[in-house]
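Lab notebook: predicted structure, single chain.

Context: the supervisor wants predicted structures on file for every construct in the current expression panel, including those that have not yet been purified. This is the next one on the list. No modifications to the sequence; it matches the entry in the shared construct table.
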Amino acid sequence: MPEGPLGTVGYSEFFNPGCELIGRVNCRHSSSLSWPALTVPGNCPRGRRLHPRGFQSSLLRSDKHVEAARKYGLSPELPEIAGQDRHRSSTICDVASYTFGDDEPAVERLRLVASAYDPISRAFLAAHVASGIDVAIDLGCGPGFSTQLLHEVCAPHTLIGVDSSSQFLEVARARLRGAVFEVHDITATPLPGAPARVIYARLVLAHIPDPLGTVDRWKGQLASDGLLLLEDLEDICAPPGPLREYDDVSADIVRRGGGLMYAGPVLAPLGGRCLPVTVPAALAARIYLFNVRRWISDPANAAEHLRPLEASLTTVAANDQGGTVSWIVRQIAVRG
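Prediction complete. Output recorded below exactly as produced.
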């Protein structure tokens, strides 16, 4: 696992599923959407080319996404706002709606995701934060799995979890009684407990229409020597079939809620590292099923189109054939 401080702001480093450095891209002075690309090695089933920003799986509507949207009864169109740069934001409001739920199944899904992310997130925090800091804030903390990680690695004197879901925070308070949990819009400042030595946000910016603008506001909530630590999705490598189909459906549903799904490429001007979180295909299918079943229960979605995907993922979850899914995660450390 890579250790030590992240590279200079404006540079991106890419690692293969074996956590070996495969390239470094200078994206500081370019505004082009055609920056140099790095190819994921053959052991990543999807083998997609990773661009520092602007590749079509993240922000631009492709024929593949239109086809997937229509297949599953979803709108293939992105929200259009006059005069808006659609590469930066997909809706005019500051907060997108969270489409993955906050009920008991959602808590279990997040438990599985937290377990998968634990090795790279734990190393990321340990490389940048000394134990015993004064104030740490966990933004979009959900049921408290990431807050627990902050507690274990950083041992802050004051630990504050912030989320918009009171249901999630009830679970978080029961999990970590030494922390303070506040219901708050994470895009609105001042943040509870600010200024903070560390502000941490994992897999949050994907659900916010303007990640870069939000990061700027968060930087203003840091103490003079503070550090903003971000982890968000850059891409997903999945084998052909229902796991890849889920990626397309999920991205469309998140966009319908006003989010981006893949926030990593938008954050690339801030630099950072891209690392894989690789899990068995059966585990990925199990995690995905929580969301698919939630979407089926939502009258806004065409359940009859989603049920075949549910059936296919159920088969993958029950029959471990040895395949894998890699979630490519961008890690960024930003000083105030």
